[in-house]
Write a structure and sequence with these properties.
Blueprint: H1 3-16, E1 20-27, H2 31-41, H3 46-54, H4 60-79, E2 88-97, E3 101-106, E4 112-117, E5 120-128, H5 129-133
Antiparallel strand pairs: 1-5, 2-5, 3-4
Helix pairs in contact: 3-4
C-alpha cells in the first residue's frame, strides 16, 4: 500500500474511534414501518428514546430498542466510560432498504400476484452532548 493510501486509511480509522454506532442488517420489517418508529427517537436523549421505544405498540420498536442498547454498549466498550452521565443522544438513525424476498400468491382464474417481503438495514449513531459543543 502506498504512503498516501496508508495515511488516508489511518485518518479514517482515527475518525471512526469517536463514532459510536450499531447496525441491524436484514431486519424482516418493511422500511416504511421501521421509519415510523425511527423518526420518533431521532435526536432524543438515550434514556428518553429507550422509554419511548419500550412503551410503543409497534413491532419495530422491539428491534430498535435492542439496537439502541447495543449502541450504548458499543459506546461503553470504546470509551471505557459509563453511559449514565455521558449525555448520550441519538445523533443519526438511518433506515435503508434491504433485500426483498419475492413470493407468489395464487389468484383466481389461474393468475398469480407477486408478494414482496421487504427487509431493511438500520444504522444508529450515538453522540455525546460534550462532543457536540466542542
Amino acid at each position: 500500500m502506498g504512503a498516501r493510501k496508508r495515511i488516508a486509511a489511518e485518518s479514517r480509522k482515527e475518525a471512526r474511534k469517536s463514532i459510536y454506532l450499531a447496525k441491524l442488517n436484514n431486519c424482516p420489517t418493511s422500511p416504511r414501518k421501521m421509519r415510523l418508529v425511527a423518526d420518533l427517537i431521532s435526536g432524543m436523549e438515550v434514556e428518553k428514546a429507550a422509554a419511548v421505544l419500550q412503551f410503543s405498540k409497534k413491532e419495530a420498536s422491539i428491534r430498535l430498542e435492542k439496537l439502541l442498547r447495543s449502541a450504548v454498549a458499543n459506546y461503553e466498550e470504546k470509551s471505557g466510560e459509563s453511559a449514565d452521565g455521558a449525555g448520550l443522544f441519538v445523533k443519526e438513525i438511518r433506515v435503508d432498504e434491504g433485500r426483498s424476498l419475492k413470493r407468489i400468491q395464487p389468484a383466481p382464474q389461474g393468475r398469480a400476484h407477486r408478494i414482496r417481503k421487504r427487509s431493511n438495514h438500520v444504522t444508529l449513531v450515538l453522540d455525546t452532548k460534550l462532543a457536540e459543543n466542542e
